[in-house]
Amino acid sequence: MACPTELLIQSERVICSASKQDGPACIAVANGKIVDVSPAPPETNLPRLRFLDALVLPGLVDVHAHPACQGSVWGIDPDEHMLPGGVTTVMSQGDAGADNWQDYQRHTIRRSQTRVLMAMNPSAIGESTSSGCFERLDDVDVERCIAAIADGGEHVPAVSVNVSRACCGDSDPREILQRALQVAGETKLPLLYGMRPAEEWSFEEQMSFLRPGDLVTYCFRSEPHNIMVGARVHPAIRAAQQRGILFDVTDGATTLDFEVARTAIADDFLPDTISTDLHRKQLADGKTHSLPHTMSKLRAAGMEVADVFAAVTSRPAAILQRPEPLGSLEPGAPADLVALQTSAEPVTLSDVYGNQLQGFQWVPVCTVRNGRVVYLSDDARVDQQPAG
Question: What pLDDT, on the 0 to 100 scale, is given for residue 2?
Fold first, then answer.
């Protein structure tokens, strides 16, 4: 028997990339799940949120950030810094490894309202020290990493390996990648991969190791690596995407360059996913750091709105391969939603290099997680009907 509806969420524009929904709709929620999506609300006195000028999407999925309430030098509290931005599911880029995985589950996964997942770090120490996690090869223990992944079960949908010099120090990046691939192969998980600059290790060789379904992150940064050769995407990067390797754009401290983004998009190279790389050092700079803000930047750089929305909902959800249909508004999906208002006029958006673009800004005004309103902005224009 269907559960009785507990909450109705209504907007003139409800968008779901997974089901191709885009138009007026009313979403019925019960027992933490979406039970119905219909063009018009039923006649009822049930509690209702009707957004007057905000579009509604599935809860956003951020596949590359640093949620960690303790134990990581990069960690941020996901409920405080991501959930109000509409992110209901986030995957950590290797904040934990075999040594601190149990603590990570206890202090972050189990205590967060946000759905927190882990791309497991092959280094047993994870991101727990200021030195590079792969500087000591002895820390990169394949068998212990596989055991931690087995213990994590559905909480661990990927393996994280960043072969940058900052992470590897003097260790051979090829050896690091080979060990990560051994873990990924035995656990049947995709890699979340951070590249080495082409002048240190050719893109051709790096891409040759990756498999369809692996996700290359930081794809629109200018340094230390840049995927562009003049106005064209590097042939090895283009060929990799064509054979099923995925690409993720982040908006971390130095990981989004508007010039790279604009020229890549103009060359018909679109990121498969958009994420924040949100971490502790960004919280003190006084700037806006949210997934909707990053989405606004990619829209200004030339991505179509439909591609932007898919890159933060259905596409990252497919990578995570969860038993429940994340990134979707289909009946049976978790009742995770975000409402976004659009700025009335274009605003100036900046990257960390000082490049600026004019574009409309998406502002999160409401987040629903597991059927409960966990954030509602004072600026939200909403017709709220209480229970009665």
Answer: 43
pLDDT per 10-residue tile (average), the chain, 388 residues: 70 96 95 93 82 97 97 96 98 98 97 98 96 96 98 97 96 98 98 97 98 98 94 98 98 92 98 96 85 98 98 97 93 97 95 94 97 94 74
Q: Which CATH architecture does the domain made up of 7-58+332-340+363-385 adopt?
A: Roll (2.30)
Query: What is the C-alpha to C-alpha distance for residues 163 and 174, in angstroms, rounded to an integer?
Result: 8
Phi, psi of 362 (to 5 degrees): -85, 130
Q: How far apart are CA 241 and CA 267, in angstroms?
A: 13
Reduced 3-state DSSP string for 142-208: HHHHHHHHHHHHHHCCEEEEECCHHHHCCCCHHHHHHHHHHHHHHHCCCEEEECCCCCCCCHHHHHH
Question: Which residue type occupies 288?
Answer: T
* Joined tokens for residue 375: 């954030």
Question: What fold does the segment set 60-320 form as a domain?
Answer: TIM Barrel (3.20.20)
Give CA–CA dist 338/68, Å, rounded. Answer: 22
CA 322 and chain centroid, separation: 14
Rounded Cα–Cα distance for residues 213 and 145 (Å): 20
The ranges assigned to domains in the chain are: 7-58+332-340+363-385, 60-320
